[in-house]
Design brief:
Strand content: 15-25%
Distance between the termini: 56 Å
Structural class: alpha+beta
Number of strands: 13
Radius of gyration: 21 Å
Strand order of the largest sheet: 1-2-3-4-5
Largest sheet: 5 strands, antiparallel
Length: about 290
């Protein structure tokens, strides 16, 4: 994959998550490649390709050239070395540099450009401090720290101030945690959204919320929701990826899940003002009451 010019954005169970090269996919990675079979599938455009077709599309090679390229990348390994490698216990979470995150946070507080961006996203000063939000002047990118369920800092997700370029710290275990879980894991009810900013906006309005950090929800994230919560309210983005995330959570969590639908004029929580967000709970409670009558 690396030889084909593909950047792996994250890993989920048995798949690599990437931006789909078969359609204009730039915001949220919608493609996955099976680590064993090499098959590609896009959750957005639904394109399916085997590894040879994928390499042909990425590199402009013919079919036979693609096959030769794939064969050249195969590495012979002994059974003994594979077993020994698997016996090495790797930590699920690795402590990230807290000083770097603190420096980025200090820069965000002092930078008019960062303050203007956060204000435009309706993120308050108190939330900037609470969540340790940062800013990198060198990369012109805002940063959102991510923690393990026990509160260990494991890295951050980054987003460009201009455009929608995303860049995370290397090895960020996105599929092994939920944004803000460390703060709300003792809550009775939790709201589940895709974006960290959406979770922050909900938090500002008094709702305990976590974010999956993408529409591709891993089995591990599902298990975390099962472990900590019995009352789970999903607020999916109003797009196909959001619909897929909602469906997966309903299938995996069953009766624990309720779904709160946004009006079609909103793409996600980020499009709403605080008053509209606060009204969500009342509207939701009213709809449940009507069902029970």
């Amino acid at each position: 994959m690396a030889g084909s010019g593909v950047d792996i954005e994250s890993e989920v169970d048995t798949d690599f998550i990437i931006f789909c090269p078969f359609h204009g996919n730039h915001r949220t990675p919608a493609g996955e490649i099976d680590k064993v079979r090499g098959t590609f599938f896009c959750f957005s455009c639904h394109h399916v390709a085997d590894l040879a077709e994928f390499v042909m599309h990425q590199t402009g090679r013919t079919y036979f050239e693609a096959i030769r390229f794939i064969k050249s990348k195969e590495v012979a390994t002994s059974l003994e070395s594979e077993i020994n490698q698997k016996l090495i216990e790797k930590p699920m979470y690795v402590q990230y540099d807290e000083l770097q995150v603190k420096r980025l946070h200090s820069t965000a507080i002092e930078s008019p450009r960062a303050q203007t961006y956060y204000s435009g996203r309706k993120i308050t000063d108190s939330s900037i401090k609470k969540f340790g939000l940062g800013y990198s002047e060198k990369q012109d990118m805002i940063t959102i720290p991510v923690h393990a369920p026990d509160g260990m800092l494991v890295g951050f997700v980054g987003r460009s101030v201009e455009g929608k370029t995303f860049k995370n710290t290397p090895g960020l275990p996105k599929g092994k945690t939920l944004f803000n879980l460390n703060r709300v894991k003792n809550s009775r009810t939790v709201y589940v959204v895709e974006s960290s900013f959406d979770a922050i906006r909900l938090d500002q309005c008094g709702f305990a919320a976590v974010a999956t950090l993408g529409s591709n929800v891993s089995n591990f994230q599902v298990d975390l929701l099962k472990k900590y919560f019995n009352d789970i309210i999903v607020i999916a983005d109003n797009d196909e990826a959001g619909g897929n995330m909602k469906t997966r959570l309903i299938e995996k969590l069953g009766s624990r899940v309720s779904v709160l639908l946004l009006e079609t004029k909103y793409k996600d929580i980020g499009d709403m003002n605080d008053e509209d967000i606060k009204a969500l709970s009342f509207s939701f409670d009213q709809s449940i009451a009507e069902i029970l009558q």
